[in-house]
């Protein structure tokens, strides 16, 4: 069964629009879990544009499912992760000018920097996942540096507009899943998944976790977060029944 990790960064983004105390991402975590989320995901960015250090500490206290911290491999952030001890760290590329994470981490090029960070996190029993493009060399490099999981970037699939492009993106994901599982990795997916495109990805065999943020938080404005999570979870579960 595929687990659903709900990314709550956007809740903090709304709060930061007024630099106030509401809405609180910790409340969002509680509501998402009541809606059936199997985990809560947040990204502590180096510029702290949405989630801040206080949020990370409170989330660690209130998340009773699985806490997944998305993070750059920058040393100060790694130090925070080591102190916080989330259940899982997902290593992502980070550029200050981007709106959201664009594409995957180039693990094969950055292996010398990624490997010691992974080792330090793993030593504390933290699961480590690398957010990568669905390419065999990135998958194998992630296994080589000691990751226990990979999160395949689904952006190419999400942005594909023609049936042919969609099929090609799904085939690329399918091959990467196979390579990942053969290398002994858990295989997650994320980026750009929505209520209308999630089922084709959930129908592929071999994924263990999806991390979804924007679409769920967008819908929550109208139906509430608990209901938005419930609806996404139902879509994933029904598509995953082979
Ligand atoms: N997974 C990772 C690694 C991400 O960086 C993001 C975006 O923060 C997501 C999943 C969620 O993507 P989206 O907000 O498009 O659902």
How would you describe the overall organization of this protein?
With 242 residues, this protein is of the alpha/beta class. Helix content is 50%, strand content 16%. It contains 11 helices and 8 strands. It has an 8-stranded parallel β-barrel, surrounded by 8 helices. Helix 10 (214-223) packs across helix 11. The chain is globular and about 45 Å long. The structure holds pyridoxine-5'-phosphate (PXP).
Short description:
The protein is built from 11 helices and 8 strands. The chain is an alpha/beta fold and 242 residues long. Helix 5 packs parallel to helix 6.
User: What kind of sheet is the major sheet?
Assistant: 8 strands, parallel, barrel
- What's the CATH H-level homologous superfamily? Aldolase class I
Q: Which spans have pLDDT < 50 for at least 5 consecutive residues?
A: none
Report the bound ligands by name, code or SMILES: pyridoxine-5'-phosphate
Return the structural class: alpha/beta
Order of helices and strands: EHHEHEHEHEHEHHEHEHH
Number of strands: 8
CATH topology: the name is TIM Barrel
Would you state the CATH class?
A: Alpha Beta
Rg estimate, integer Å: 17 Å
Helix segment tally = 11
What's the rounded overall pLDDT mean?
Answer: 96
Describe the SSE topology.
Elements lengths: L2 E5 L1 H10 L6 H10 L4 E5 L9 H10 L4 E5 L3 H10 L3 E4 L15 H17 L3 E6 L3 H9 L4 E5 L1 H5 L3 H20 L3 E5 L7 H5 L6 E4 L1 H10 L1 H15 L3
Parallel strand pairs: 1-2, 1-8, 2-3, 3-4, 4-5, 5-6, 6-7, 7-8
Bound molecules: pyridoxine-5'-phosphate.
């Amino acid at each position: 069964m595929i687990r659903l990790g709900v990314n709550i960064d956007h809740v903090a983004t709304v709060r930061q629009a007024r630099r106030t105390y509401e809405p609180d991402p910790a409340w969002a975590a509680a509501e998402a879990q009541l809606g059936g989320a199997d985990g809560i995901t947040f990204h502590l960015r180096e510029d702290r544009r949405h989630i801040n250090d206080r949020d990370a500490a409170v989330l660690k206290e209130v998340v009773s499912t699985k806490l997944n911290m998305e993070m750059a491999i920058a040393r100060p952030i790694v130090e925070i992760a080591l102190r916080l001890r989330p259940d899982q760290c997902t290593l992502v590329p980070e550029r200050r000018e981007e709106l959201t994470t664009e594409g995957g981490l180039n693990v094969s090029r950055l292996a010398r920097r990624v490997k010691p960070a992974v080792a330090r996190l793993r030593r504390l029993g933290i699961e480590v996942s690398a957010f990568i493009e669905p390419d065999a060399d990135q998958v194998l490099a992630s296994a080589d540096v000691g990751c226990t999981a990979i999160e395949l970037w689904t952006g190419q699939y999400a942005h594909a507009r023609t049936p042919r492009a969609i099929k090609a993106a799904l085939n690329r994901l399918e091959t990467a899943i196979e390579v990942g599982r053969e290398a002994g990795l858990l295989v997650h997916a994320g980026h750009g998944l929505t209520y209308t495109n999630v089922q084709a990805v959930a129908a592929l065999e071999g994924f263990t976790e999806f991390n979804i943020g924007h679409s769920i938080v967008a819908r929550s404005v109208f139906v509430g977060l608990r209901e938005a999570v419930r609806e996404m979870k139902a879509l994933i579960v029904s598509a995953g029944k082979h």
